[in-house]
Write a structure and sequence with these properties.
Low-confidence stretches of chain B: none
Number of helices of chain B: 7
Strand order of the largest sheet of chain B: 4-3-2-1-5-6-7
Mean pLDDT of chain B: 96
Shape of chain B: globular
Number of domains of chain B: 1
Helix content of chain A: 25-40%
Largest sheet of chain A: 5 strands, parallel
Largest interface: A-B, 84 and 56 residues
Strand content of chain A: 15-25%
Shape of chain A: globular
CATH class of chain B: Alpha Beta
Oligomer: heterodimer
Structural class of chain B: alpha/beta
Number of strands of chain A: 19
CATH superfamily of chain B: Aconitase, domain 4
Number of helices of chain A: 15
Helix content of chain B: 25-40%
Distance between the termini of chain B: 38 Å
Largest sheet of chain B: 7 strands, mixed
Strand content of chain B: 15-25%
Strand order of the largest sheet of chain A: 5-4-3-6-7
Number of strands of chain B: 7
CATH topology of chain B: Aconitase, domain 4
Mean pLDDT of chain A: 96
Chain lengths: 461, 186
């Protein structure tokens, strides 16, 4: 019987019925302390510290605080220091504050080359699906499962159902991976993929950079899917080979990682990629999304009414008329070098609108250094953006970067839930290009027309 | 984990769909390094809304796609610490549901109609062994993974169960282990 990419990885990792082996376990400060406590309480060890990697990301301030001991917020400091202590006690490698490899866990895994095709990867974080961009099976787990993997390097799991999302045609000019996934979630709803491992395929996916593919897989959970994956190809191999933990050449096994013709999926959907435009969320979950040229929909349910009320919006308002207070470029969805390049490119010598506070938060120390080598920091600073240090920052407001009540934010992150970016804060999810343009104009603009206008005015100058 | 057979009692109702874990337990409380004491922060922001009422009953009836979003196990911890022993809803998010099974909080999916009837009835009984939810005037069967059911009925520690398969894990590592990455060599 023909096999899917998911079938192949699943079978390859079966230790016993219902028990799968985990090749890589990523750990961060928020969902691990109780797991380490339980290990200690039960006298258990970490089975494979050499397949485990820890970093501090959720709690870290992005003001350049050099070491954990200097984090001002006491609870955050204790949590990061607890991770450092646990890593030392159990022999787990850690990149904490001050390390040249510190960063968002889903940014540093691929960056170091520890994320590789064909692996099983878990982390106590729902955005672990990001790593599926490399053709691995990667998903988020809770703290009890973190403890389970630490102790056994395995997880008890029954095989999830499989789903194929196939894109026909290619993305238009100015339309990014972020728009593709927001559109997809808008089509299938926030529980469209619940219970499924999703494979994304088609020419629009194949043309994406690794950064773009990570953005797509990252947001799989926002459609309910626990894991999203993309078959590895030359783009993948070129990205992976040569990184610190990667092999020097492409192993033969990696070339077997594809879905065979006729493989079974429990659910298949087809999406016309040519129909996708730059997207903006208007409500309080990621499926509440429309194209930038559209208007905020008229409410159809109590849930819509509640969302519009929270967002302070009226149905029928054109998206381009929504005025912003803040712009956040960052998060595990959109903080990699490719994202920052895309955002910097649209600035074109303009400045952030006077009433907007805009920040750029690189996903890792490495991304920050790379961006600075390329002069991107200068472009952002000259335009009036705040150039910050690596971390999760405003994506979830567990650190000092939060929005004030009722502040309206254009954000490249992944969740527009109530209170996510600060109590009462109003989040609109967009691509890095759309965020940068919105920062400059002070309201949303259609990047496709706006870039052309910007280019024209540059020619006139 | 304690063994569970049936959970019987009054129900609290939260009639909203797509309730995410950021609402169940907002991020500021995730900074704690303890596993207990999250109950007082359950639905922290919503609890301030006028008209909010969520009595501390054994059973919570909720809307579709309950527990979506973040993987934080703090959400089931908070629900349990508040007093809930079972959550009944038309559907649950995957990670949330899995997290519930680890701490013995029952996440039971039944039809929308059954949820409405249970909310109306005000009391219910969840029979894990019989895989049935009963209320005044009705009952409905629910599905549960047989392995998880066995573990919950017997209050088994699944880490101990996996550790008992140490030979199989070692054999897998000997025959199947992929080369690299060795994080300790970085």
């Amino acid at each position: 019987m023909p096999k899917s990419l998911f079938d192949k990885i699943w079978e390859r990792h079966q230790v016993a019925p219902g028990l799968i082996y985990i090749d890589l376990h990523l750990v961060h400060e928020v969902t691990s302390p109780q797991a380490f406590d339980a290990l200690r309480m039960n006298g258990r060890k970490v089975r494979r510290p050499d397949r485990t990697l820890a970093t501090a990301d959720h709690n870290v301030p992005t003001d350049g605080t050099p070491v954990a001991a200097r984090i001002k917020d006491e609870l955050s400091r204790v949590q990061v220091q607890t991770l450092e202590r646990n890593a030392a006690e159990f022999g787990i490698p850690i990149y904490s504050l001050g390390s040249e490899h510190q960063g968002i866990v889903h940014v540093i895994g691929p960056e170091l080359g520890v994320t590789q095709p064909g692996m099983t990867i878990v982390c106590g974080d729902s955005h672990t699906a990001t790593h599926g961009a490399f053709g691995s099976l990667a998903f988020g787990i809770g703290t009890s499962e973190v403890e389970h993997v630490l102790a056994t390097q395995c997880l008890t799991q029954s095989k999830p159902k499989s789903m194929l999302i196939r894109y026909e045609g290619e993305l238009g000019y100015g339309v990014s991976a972020k728009d593709l996934i927001l559109y997809t979630i808008g089509q299938m709803g926030v529980e469209g993929a619940t219970g499924y491992v999703v494979e994304y395929s088609g020419p629009a996916i194949e043309r994406l950079s690794m950064e773009g593919r990570m953005t797509v897989c990252n947001m799989t959970i926002e459609g309910g899917g626990r894991a999203g994956m993309i078959a590895p190809d030359e783009t993948t191999f070129q990205y992976v080979i040569g990184r610190p933990a990667s092999p020097a050449t492409v192993p033969d096994e990696w070339r077997e990682l594809y879905t065979e013709q006729g493989a079974h999926f429990d659910k298949e959907i087809v999406i016309d990629a040519t129909k996708i435009s730059p997207m903006v969320t208007w409500g309080t979950n990621p499926a509440m999304v429309v194209g930038v040229g559209d208007s905020v929909p008229v409410p159809q349910s109590d849930q819509d009414e509640r969302a519009l009320d929270y967002m302070g919006l009226d149905g029928g308002t054109p998206v381009e008329q929504i005025k912003l207070d803040r712009v956040f470029i960052g998060s595990c969805t959109n903080s990699r070098i490719g994202d920052l390049r895309a955002a910097a490119e649209v600035i074109g010598g303009r400045r952030v609108a006077d009433h907007v506070y805009a920040m750029v938060v690189p996903g890792s120390v490495q991304v920050k250094e790379q961006a600075e080598q390329e002069g991107l920091d200068e472009i952002f600073r000259a335009a009036g953006f705040d150039w910050r240090a690596a971390g999760c920052s405003m994506c979830l407001g567990m650190n000092p970067d939060i929005a004030a009540p009722q502040e309206r934010v254009a954000s490249t992150s992944n969740r527009n839930f109530e209170g996510r970016q600060g109590r009462g804060a109003r989040t609109h999810l967009v691509s890095p290009q759309m965020a940068a343009a919105a920062a400059i104009e002070g309201h949303f603009v259609d990047i496709r027309e706006w870039s052309a206008l910007a280019a024209q005015s540059a020619e006139v100058r | 984990m304690r063994a569970i057979e049936t959970i019987t009692g009054r129900v609290s109702v939260l009639n909203r769909d797509d309730v995410d874990t950021d609402q169940i337990i907002p991020k500021q409380f995730l900074k704690r390094v303890e596993r207990t004491g999250f109950g007082e922060f359950l639905f922290y922001d919503w609890a301030k809304e006028p008209g909010w009422e969520l009595p501390k009953n054994p059973i919570l009836v909720a809307g579709r796609n309950f527990g979506c979003g973040s993987s934080r196990e703090h959400a089931p911890w908070a629900l349990e610490d508040y007093g809930f022993q079972a959550v009944i809803a038309p559907s649950f998010a995957d990670i949330f549901k899995s997290n519930c099974t680890k701490i013995g909080l029952l996440a039971i999916a039944v039809s929308q109609e059954a949820c409405a009837a249970i909310a109306q009835s005000g009391t219910a009984q969840v029979d894990l062994a019989g895989q049935e939810v009963r209320w005044d005037g009705g009952s409905e069967h629910f599905d549960i993974d047989p392995e998880i059911k066995h573990r919950l009925l017997n209050g088994l520690d699944d880490i101990a169960l996996t550790l008992a398969q140490d030979d199989a894990i070692s054999a897998f590592e000997a025959s199947h282990e992929r080369p690299g990455p060795v994080t300790t060599a970085l």
